[in-house]
């Protein structure tokens, strides 16, 4: 059973996906990717940065010397997403969009392998992901990590040229909407709400978002957005930048507090729509 699944998967990639992608590009996919990376030294430097950062996180997170709440363990990967994708969007956005697509394909493939229980590789993947699984991954597939990637990628995919063409002061933030609200805001809200939150938005609820967590998420997102605007030269001061992003950020953080949908997908799209 396992061998048959692996064979079908390999055939689907080798016979269907690669030729189709190459036909659309009018060039072999792997050659096209190679030319794209070698075209600029900055793209190779970005790729080396990504590989180094992922290697460090893979061998150091979660920490083995201290026991952390599952929420905080999961949000560590949100921070990783921010560290990976924010520099890529600002320095080499076309390479980042390509990396998003490749990473999505890789994560889907690995998740199918894990769910199919294909011997040692599936067991290794299961051991790695088991500490991060919660009630939202109760079925045979664990999809929250894929939703995190998509949440960061969708705003960037939707704005390949809009940020540079628009005269809006908030235009540079639109492709970063998912990275900011998930990598910074959602992370700060969850961590601070878990460690210090006491006043829940729904009184008497044993589970749910806290006022303190929402405030921390909004404040951290506004600060990160102002820094991003300053880097791009679209704002001249802290107060002016904060006022620009305040309405969209507060609305999105309130949505995070009350939504029962998949926040890794809903929040980036909402934040993107209010910034674009």
In short:
The protein has 276 residues and is an all-alpha fold.
What does this protein structure show overall?
It is a single chain. With 276 residues, this protein is an all-alpha fold. Helices cover 75% and strands 0% of the residues. The chain contains twelve helices and no strands. It has helices at residues 2-25, 29-38, 41-60, 70-91, 93-116, 119-129, 144-158, 162-165, 177-196, 211-232, 238-258, 263-275. The longest helix has 24 residues, at 2-25. The chain is globular and about 55 Å long.
**Assembly annotation:** single chain
SSE string: HHHHHHHHHHHH
Specify the helix fraction band.
over 70%
Count of helical regions? 12
Mean pLDDT: 81
Low-confidence region ranges:
none
The beta-strand count equals 0
Shape verdict = globular
Cα Rg: 20 Å
Secondary structural class? mainly alpha
Q: What distance lies between the first and last C-alpha atoms, to the nearest angstrom?
A: 48 Å
Main features:
mainly alpha, single chain, 276 residues, 0% strand, 75% helix, globular, 12 helices
Which helices and strands, and how do they pair?
Blueprint: H1 2-25, H2 29-38, H3 41-60, H4 70-91, H5 93-116, H6 119-129, H7 144-158, H8 162-165, H9 177-196, H10 211-232, H11 238-258, H12 263-275
Helix pairs in contact: 3-4, 4-5, 4-7, 4-9, 5-6, 5-7, 7-9, 7-12, 9-10, 9-12, 10-11, 11-12
């Amino acid at each position: 059973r396992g061998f048959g699944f692996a064979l079908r998967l390999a055939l689907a990639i080798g016979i269907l996906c690669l030729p189709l992608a190459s036909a659309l590009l009018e060039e072999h996919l792997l050659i096209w990717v190679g030319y794209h990376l070698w075209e600029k030294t900055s793209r190779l430097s970005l790729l080396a940065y990504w590989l180094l950062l992922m290697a460090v996180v893979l061998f150091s997170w979660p920490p083995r010397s201290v026991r952390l709440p599952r929420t905080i363990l999961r949000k560590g990967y949100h921070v990783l997403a921010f560290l990976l994708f924010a520099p890529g969007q600002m320095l080499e956005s076309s390479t980042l969009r390509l990396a998003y697509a490749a990473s999505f394909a890789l994560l889907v493939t690995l998740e199918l392998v894990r769910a199919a229980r294909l011997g040692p590789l599936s067991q290794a993947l299961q051991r790695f992901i088991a500490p991060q699984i919660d009630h939202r991954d109760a079925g045979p597939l664990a999809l929250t990590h894929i939703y995190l990637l998509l949440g960061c990628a969708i705003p960037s995919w939707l704005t390949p040229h809009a940020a540079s063409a628009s005269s809006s002061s908030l235009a540079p933030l639109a492709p970063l909407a998912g990275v900011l609200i998930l990598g910074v805001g959602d992370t700060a809200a969850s961590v601070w709400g878990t460690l210090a939150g006491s006043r829940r938005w729904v009184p008497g609820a044993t589970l749910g978002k806290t006022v303190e967590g929402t405030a921390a998420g909004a404040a951290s997102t506004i600060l990160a957005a102002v820094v991003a605007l300053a880097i791009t030269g679209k704002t001249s001061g802290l107060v002016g930048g904060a006022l620009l992003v305040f309405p969209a950020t507060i609305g999105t953080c309130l949505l995070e507090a009350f939504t029962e949908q998949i926040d890794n997908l809903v929040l980036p799209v909402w934040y993107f729509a209010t910034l674009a």
